[in-house]
């Protein structure tokens, strides 16, 4: 396997291990005496910060450079994780710390996606993005179960060491990164970057924004699925395992398809499958049905996530890829911020099952619309009259 791809896989593993650790922050905070409302705020402000900072992330990446941005942001993550492990302080102090964590994670991801879009040559791009995305799946098999075990066994201090170790690994990898001659489009360090106006004028940026937002909304359903399954006395972590297994399967066994077809071909159908699995999940009440829906949902994620990340390189010239990376991540993060709001109000008014089914149906409708949006237009035959 290409050394660059392996390096990108490890970096993805490190930074996603950092963020995935906090999937179980709310249960940990409950053991520390925080109310459910306070825990919810401390979880959500991280995602609010990542969403708000995405556009700024491209500016930081362009000013500090890709390597400099990754070093700076991973240091922020490391510093906050270390402080959190040593001292937790007041609620307002904790909120501030979580906001800075979100800022660091956001900038790191924009810089990393930009580097990936610039460094991987077009002929290998589809396969590379699929393989690199494996790094974001591995923490679901390793870090997430470990954090669950540590919290259930009242080992909170050890639990808080995981983000310290993950961000330290990300920092060390950023230090070793060499970007001077990494770009297939020229020297990254001397790149002349474009503006957001250029991005929307020269690329199908609005299509990218819509596609990534609606895909992200479907992908963020994981925060809703837990409530639905718990009401049915099923274990949500089994669904996560099945989902990760499906995603890992297609990113290994089906990885070559990414190079045979344009990535836009996968953008819509991948999350048609995800939405269909959500509707299916709302009707199943058995462990087997849950595992099957989770596995096929993971297949959709396995194709959809790298396909949407690859849009930054496929549809934008090199000088606009930092802006495209920020746009893609902003669109996805906005979904993760909005869905918990709908989940809370919708479940209260309609009940969890009805609210979930309406959400799943909305995902299916938008997935079909995105599929139609990315359909390649048929070239007009010569001599036919203009319409």
Total count of domains: 2
The shape is: globular
For CATH, the homologous superfamily of the largest domain is named as: MFS general substrate transporter like domains
Helical amount among residues, as a percent range?
A: over 70%
H/E order of the elements? HHHHHHHHHHHHHHHHHH
Indicate the structural class. mainly alpha
Kindly state the number of beta strands: 0
Kindly report the CATH topology of the largest domain. Answer: Growth Hormone, Chain: A
Average pLDDT figure = 82
Query: What is the distance, rounded to the nearest whole angstrom, between the alpha carbons of the first and last residues?
Result: 50 Å
Q: Class of the largest domain in CATH?
A: Mainly Alpha
Beta strand %: under 5%
Low-pLDDT regions: 379-387
Q: Which CATH architecture of the largest domain? A: Up-down Bundle
How many helical stretches? 18
Largest sheet: none
Estimated radius of gyration: 21 Å
State the main characteristics.
387 residues; Growth Hormone, Chain: A; 18 helices; globular
Secondary structure elements and pairings:
Blueprint: H1 3-20, H2 25-31, H3 36-86, H4 91-119, H5 125-132, H6 134-141, H7 143-152, H8 156-159, H9 161-176, H10 196-202, H11 205-219, H12 222-231, H13 236-252, H14 257-260, H15 264-281, H16 287-314, H17 321-350, H18 352-373
How would you describe what is shown here?
The protein has 387 residues and is mostly helical. It folds into two domains: 1-191, MFS general substrate transporter like domains (Growth Hormone, Chain: A, Up-down Bundle), CATH 1.20.1250.20; 193-375, MFS general substrate transporter like domains (Growth Hormone, Chain: A). 78% of the residues lie in helices and 0% in strands. The chain has 18 helices and no strands. It has helices spanning 3-20, 25-31, 36-86, 91-119, 125-132, 134-141, 143-152, 156-159, 161-176, 196-202, 205-219, 222-231, 236-252, 257-260, 264-281, 287-314, 321-350, 352-373. Helix 3 (36-86) crosses helix 4 (91-119). The radius of gyration is 21 Å and the shape is globular. 49% of the residues are buried.
């Amino acid at each position: 396997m290409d050394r660059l791809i392996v390096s990108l896989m490890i970096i993805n593993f490190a930074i996603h291990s950092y963020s995935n650790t906090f999937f179980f922050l709310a249960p940990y905070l409950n053991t520390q005496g925080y109310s459910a409302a306070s825990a919810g705020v401390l979880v959500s402000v991280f995602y609010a910060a990542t969403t708000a900072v995405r556009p700024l992330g491209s500016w930081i990446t362009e000013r500090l450079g890709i390597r400099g941005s990754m070093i700076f942001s991973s240091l922020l993550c490391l510093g906050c994780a270390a402080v959190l492990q040593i001292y937790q302080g007041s609620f307002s102090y904790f909120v501030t710390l979580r906001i800075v964590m979100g800022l660091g994670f956001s900038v790191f991801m924009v810089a990393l996606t930009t580097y990936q879009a610039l460094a991987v040559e077009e002929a290998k791009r589809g396969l590379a993005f699929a393989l690199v995305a494996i790094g974001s799946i591995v923490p679901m098999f390793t870090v997430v179960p470990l954090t669950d075990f540590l919290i259930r066994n009242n080992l909170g201090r050890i639990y808080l060491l995981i983000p310290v170790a993950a961000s330290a690994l990300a920092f060390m990898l950023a230090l070793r990164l060499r970007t001077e001659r990494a770009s297939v489009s020229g020297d990254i360090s001397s790149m002349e970057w474009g503006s957001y106006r250029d991005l929307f004028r020269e690329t199908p940026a609005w299509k990218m924004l819509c596609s990534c937002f609606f895909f992200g909304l479907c992908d963020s359903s994981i925060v809703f699925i837990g409530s639905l399954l718990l009401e049915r006395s099923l274990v949500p972590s089994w669904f996560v395992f099945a989902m990760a297994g499906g995603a890992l399967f297609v990113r290994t066994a089906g990885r070559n398809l990414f190079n045979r077809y344009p990535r836009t071909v996968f953008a819509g159908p991948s999350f048609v499958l995800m939405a269909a699995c959500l509707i299916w999940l709302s009707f199943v009440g058995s462990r087997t049905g849950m595992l099957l829906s989770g596995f096929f949902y993971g297949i959709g994620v396995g194709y959809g996530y790298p396909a949407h990340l690859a849009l930054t390189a496929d549809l934008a010239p090199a000088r606009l890829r930092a802006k495209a990376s920020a746009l893609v991540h902003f669109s996805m993060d906005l979904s993760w911020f909005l869905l918990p709001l709908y989940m809370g109000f919708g479940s209260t008014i309609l009940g969890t099952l009805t609210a979930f089914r309406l959400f799943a149906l909305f995902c299916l409708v938008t997935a079909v619309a995105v599929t139609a949006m990315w359909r390649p237009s048929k070239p007009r035959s010569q001599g036919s009259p203009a319409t």
